[in-house]
Specification:
This is Molybdenum ABC transporter ATP-binding protein. By secondary structure, the chain is α+β, with helices and mostly antiparallel strands. It is built from 9 helices and 21 strands. The protein has a 6-stranded mixed beta sheet with strand order 7-8-9-3-10-11, with helices on both faces. A 5-stranded antiparallel beta sheet has the order 2-1-4-5-6, covered by helices on one side. A 5-stranded antiparallel beta sheet has the order 14-13-12-15-21. A hairpin with a 2-residue loop joins strand 1 and strand 2.
Length: 361
């Protein structure tokens, strides 16, 4: 199942002109506030009628302005989860879940209901009312209600924005399970690069109402040309890794394209495949294998590009098998080291520089 959208719309002085395809999995709409992310989602949901464009899920057209097609909201078979859960306060969790199917006039089988409840870990909450739920629990119930409407597309508009860091850490593993389990496209709006790195399979970066970059998550986040839209301080790459050991000193060992990576206590089972986001500003480069350093992680690769910004920095992209690492260093350091494309290089990463939130399943 795939989803295609093209939208042109003007609101006051802001002009939106975007087009992209969203395959199965999580397509993250990423960008700063005011770039048009929520406008896109609202147009897809039927809450806003754009000036021109279309949206299609496989062979079903949600709207096509040129053809005069506009499906009403209740016929679009979409699940929409907002920043705030918007649960019915007078209903129990179980009644809130049932409402999703009832609103779409669909029968909810026990097997379907049980699968969603298990997926989101809300079995112990069924008899509670929303007032007795934490923020993370409310959002999981809201996602469950949307899933039980049997949608063809799931829309998540910054579902973690209103949560504190502890609640975000609580719900992210469930969103990862949803990504891997769902057989429908998921459009996920966020301005958090850490969330995008953990959850997305595809990334669409919006800047000034236009698509600045779109593609597979790892390719977009490690692209130096996308740094201006992503933000220099947040720039970094995502490596695929496998958890191979928990050591007695509290460190966990993962294998990556460039070698072993030691990180503080990763809470996961041995053998699980993971994603690790490494910020460019946390990477130090060396021409030779370093010795006598406190940093434990040294990954070997080859320089494939260097992008000089307007300031004193240079973004170095390093190939590591079929993946990439980004390093943000000063122009002075790049010149002093005589760095050129094709040079073999060692990327040095402090274990404690990788935050727990940057390691996901």
């Amino acid at each position: 199942m795939s989803f295609s959208v093209s939208i042109r719309h003007r609101m006051g002085g802001f002009s939106l002109d975007v087009a992209f395809d969203a395959p199965k999995g999580v397509t993250a709409l990423f960008g700063r506030s005011g770039t048009g992310k929520t406008t896109v989602v609202n147009a897809v949901a039927g809450l806003l009628k754009p000036d021109a464009g279309y949206a299609r899920i496989d062979d079903v057209t949600l709207f096509d302005q040129a053809a005069g097609i506009w499906l009403p909201v209740h016929k679009r078979r979409l699940g929409y989860v907002f920043q705030d859960a918007r649960l019915f306060p007078h209903m129990t969790v179980e009644e809130n879940l049932a409402y999703g199917a009832k609103a779409q006039r669909r029968d909810m089988s026990k097997a379907q209901k049980d699968r969603v409840i298990d997926l989101l870990g809300i079995g112990d909450l069924l008899a509670r009312r929303p007032a007795r739920l934490s923020g993370g629990e409310k959002q999981r119930v809201a996602i469950g209600r949307a899933l039980l409407a049997d949608p063809k597309l799931l829309l998540l508009d910054e579902p973690l924005a209103a949560l504190d860091e502890a609640r975000k850490a609580e719900i992210l593993p469930f969103l990862e399970r949803l990504r891997d389990d769902a057989q429908i496209p998921i459009l996920y709006v966020s301005h958090s690069i850490a969330e995008v790195a953990r959850l997305a399979t595809t990334v669409v970066v919006l800047e000034g109402g236009r698509v600045a970059r779109a593609g597979a998550m790892a390719d977009v986040l490690s692209d130096p040309d996308a740094v201006s839209a992503l933000g220099v301080r947040d720039a970094g790459a995502v490596l695929a890794a496998k958890l191979v050991a928990h050591h007695a000193d509290g460190l966990s060992e993962l294998t990556t394209c460039g070698g072993a990576l030691l990180l503080p206590g990763v809470q996961a089972e041995i053998g699980i495949h993971m994603r690790v986001r490494i910020r460019a500003q946390d990477v130090i480069l060396s021409r030779s294998a370093p010795q006598g350093l406190s940093a434990l992680n040294v990954l070997k690769g080859k320089i494939v590009s260097m992008r000089q910004g307007a300031g004193p920095g240079v973004m170095v992209r390093i190939a590591c098998a079929d993946e990439h690492i980004l390093a943000r260093i000063t122009r002075r350091s790049a010149v002093a080291m005589g760095l050129q494309n094709g040079d073999e290089i060692f990327a040095i990463i402090k274990s404690v520089s990788v935050a727990q939130g940057d390691v996901g399943g």
